[in-house]
């Protein structure tokens, strides 16, 4: 066993332990299980956002897919009697469909125009949800519980969703898709010239990313049992999904996850100390990261390890 | 209805012309624009509440304070990303926006506040219509300031320097214009305009830490309709937005709620159909 595989095994074991720990304490400390669920929701949103960002599309529409997933699932389960898990799957599908539409609409928009258009899309959905007669309008909707409301089982569900997403993300970063995504992100025209099907990959990335955002939105609804337009279509959802990868390290699998964990922990800490204004941490870190550490925590780590072990940070350098 | 639409567009144009200045001259799409407006509004409220100063009379003070704040933000943050990728600039201002909004929540709490000026409820009749005095005053003042800015940009040395820098940074610096100082000035001016608009809002509506985002987005809608960086189109674009909002409010059932979405819809439409903007 080489040092590298041993290190990986140790990291894997540590992650497994950390992941299973909340389950061990669920009887005495239900708060930690709840916190763990929140962290995993953030992590899934962050990593799914990063998938889309890998094609150079920095979207502010993640809340749109999150909200669509939530509303689709809640409406189907309460009005049509669909089982909750099936409702969640439908939520993912509807979110993906909307993403394909948005993807085609915004295909030619770049940078700031793209960001504004996606934000407008998301807010338009919020206004529509506020106005339609069957969505409960601004008051919101009450959602049925997932798996009879057992927290431990619910925790495993979001864990499974995240693991699937991690596998998808890892696969993308190892396959030919990685080169296609990176080429599109770096220079779309050149990518098209060298034979990358730009339209297909951009729209696909949108669909996959939204699929996970949608399923998490639905999951959120059935765990917290209540949704309202102001909450699920909130800009805060999109912001959280974007700050975590930027803070943790863009275009990697580990970066968004680490970013989400750190941010969520910081948020929890601030929530108990300053109360109302806790999202200040998102603003502060976003500004600091942009100004002082443009490649996020992952970048810091690869720079530090390169200095320590005198080797070039190959993998991360490729990602940056 | 037309009157209401037009009156509303005064405040819109004052807010957006500031953002257009930041975009056009400095080249920064400032997501925190509305937050400076929010700070101006709080300043107006505070000056009124503690010192009994009329928000309109306090505008010079508020504008100066917000100008300094904006200049500080420029020196500490914006200046460092002038040559960074566009998305980094956007994300930085986005971070500043979240930071300022939540700072306001921590400092002043999230409840809306209202400054009750003596003439708040008074109205005058214009022909067959009755119009609120604050609305009328704000409209006149906002339009005057917007036009004054146009005059400054068109006629004075500093305005010409700003336009020169906007056209070509290198060329302007070769002509002996201190580009960095112009940027600082333009950004400060841009935030001061937002702050002024904020103080006018104190007069009509309630003040809370959450009002910033809405105005950022509306200002975005307007400068997108005008064409990003096109300062002259802002007045027309503001009219388009103000009128279409009023139209929706009057003619669509439950229009109040739908009017909220008008500007998003306009953004989407303009970006998809004519991304260069309608007015150029």
Mind sketching the topology for me?
The complex is a heterodimer of chains A (about 325) and B (about 280).
Chain A: H1 3-24, H2 30-53, H3 62-79, H4 84-105, H5 111-131, E1 141-142, H6 151-174, H7 176-186, H8 188-193, H9 198-224, E2 226-227, H10 229-232, H11 235-248, H12 254-273, H13 280-292, H14 296-309, H15 314-319
Antiparallel strand pairs in A: 1-2
Chain B: H1 2-26, H2 33-51, H3 59-76, H4 86-108, E1 123-126, E2 129-132, H5 133-155, H6 157-167, H7 169-174, H8 179-204, H9 211-226, H10 234-251, H11 255-273
Helix pairs in contact in B: 1-5, 1-8, 1-9, 1-10, 2-3, 2-4, 2-8, 2-9, 3-8, 5-6, 5-8, 6-8, 9-10, 9-11, 10-11
Number of domains of chain B: 1
Uncertain runs of chain B: none
Range of helix content of chain B:
over 70%
Poorly predicted parts of chain A: 316-320
User: Could you tell me the radius of gyration of chain B in angstroms?
Assistant: 18 Å
**What's the N-to-C terminus distance of chain A?**
30 Å
Helix/strand structural class of chain A: mainly alpha
Number of helices of chain B: 11
Assembly state: heterodimer
Proportion of helical residues of chain A:
over 70%
Strand order of the largest sheet of chain A: 1-2
Q: Which series of helices and strands of chain B comes N to C?
A: HHHHEEHHHHHHH
Average predicted local confidence, pLDDT of chain A: 84
Decide which structural class fits the backbone of chain B. Answer: mainly alpha
* Global shape of chain A: globular
Q: Biggest interface in this structure? A: A-B, 42 and 44 residues
- Distance from N terminus to C terminus of chain B (CA atoms, Å) equals 27 Å
Estimate the strand proportion of chain A.
under 5%
The residue-averaged pLDDT of chain B reads: 82
């Amino acid at each position: 066993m080489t040092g590298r595989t041993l290190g990986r095994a140790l990291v894997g074991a540590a992650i497994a332990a950390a992941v299973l720990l909340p389950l061990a304490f669920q009887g005495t400390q239900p708060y930690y299980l709840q916190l763990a669920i929140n962290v995993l929701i953030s992590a899934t949103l962050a990593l799914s956002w990063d998938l889309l960002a890998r094609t150079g599309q920095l979207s502010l529409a993640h809340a749109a897919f999150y909200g669509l997933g939530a509303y689709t699932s809640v409406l189907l389960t309460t009005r049509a009697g669909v089982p909750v898990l099936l409702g969640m799957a439908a939520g993912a599908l509807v979110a993906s469909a909307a993403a394909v539409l948005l993807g085609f609409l915004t295909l030619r928009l770049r940078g700031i125009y793209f960001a504004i258009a996606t934000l407008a899309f998301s807010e338009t959905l919020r206004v529509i949800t506020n106005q339609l007669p069957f969505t409960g309008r601004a008051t919101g909707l009450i959602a049925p519980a997932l798996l009879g409301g057992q927290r431990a089982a619910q925790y495993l569900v979001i864990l499974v969703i995240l693991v699937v997403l991690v596998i998808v993300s890892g696969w993308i970063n190892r396959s030919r898709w990685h080169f296609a995504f990176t080429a599109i992100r770096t220079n779309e025209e050149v990518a098209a010239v060298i034979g990358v099907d730009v339209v297909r990959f951009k729209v696909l990335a949108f669909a996959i990313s939204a699929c996970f955002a949608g399923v998490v939105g639905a999951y959120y609804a059935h765990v917290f049992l209540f949704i309202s337009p102001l909450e699920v279509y909130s800009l805060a959802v999109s912001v959280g999904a974007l700050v975590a990868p930027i803070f943790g390290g863009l275009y990697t699998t580990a970066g968004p996850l680490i970013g989400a964990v750190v941010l969520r922990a910081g948020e929890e800490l601030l929530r108990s100390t300053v109360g109302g204004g806790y999202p200040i941490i998102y603003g502060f870190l976003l500004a600091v990261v942009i100004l002082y550490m443009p490649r996020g925590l992952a970048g810091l780590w690869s720079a530090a390890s390169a200095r320590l072990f005198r080797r070039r940070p190959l993998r991360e350098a490729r990602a940056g | 209805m037309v009157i209401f639409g037009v009156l509303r567009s005064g405040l819109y144009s004052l807010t957006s012309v500031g953002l257009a200045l930041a975009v056009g001259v400095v080249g920064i799409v400032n997501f925190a624009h509305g937050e400076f407006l929010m700070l101006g509004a709080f300043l107006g409220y505070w000056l009124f509440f503690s010192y009994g100063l009329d928000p309109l009379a306090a505008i010079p003070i508020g504008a100066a304070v917000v100008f300094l704040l904006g200049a500080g933000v420029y020196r500490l943050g914006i200046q460092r990303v002038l040559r960074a990728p566009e998305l980094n600039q956007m994300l930085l201002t986005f971070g500043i926006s979240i930071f300022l909004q939540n700072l306001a929540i921590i400092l002043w709490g999230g409840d809306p506040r209202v400054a009750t000026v003596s003439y708040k409820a008074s109205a005058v009749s214009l022909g067959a219509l009755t119009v609120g005095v604050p609305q009328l005053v704000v409209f006149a003042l906002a339009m005057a300031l917007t036009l004054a800015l146009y005059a400054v940009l068109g006629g004075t040395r500093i305005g010409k320097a700003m336009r020169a820098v906007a056209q070509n940074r290198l060329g302007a610096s070769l002509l002996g214009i201190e580009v960095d100082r112009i940027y600082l000035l333009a950004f400060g001016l841009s935030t001061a305009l937002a702050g002024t608009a904020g103080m006018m809002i104190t007069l009509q509506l309630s003040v809370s830490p959450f009002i910033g985002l809405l105005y950022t987005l509306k200002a975005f809608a307007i400068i997108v309709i005008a064409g990003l960086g096109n300062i002259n189109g802002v007045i027309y674009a503001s009219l388009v937005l103000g009128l279409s909002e009023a139209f929706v409010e009057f003619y669509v059932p439950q229009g109040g709620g739908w009017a909220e979405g008008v500007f998003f819809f306009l953004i989407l439409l303009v970006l998809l159909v004519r991304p260069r903007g309608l007015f150029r």
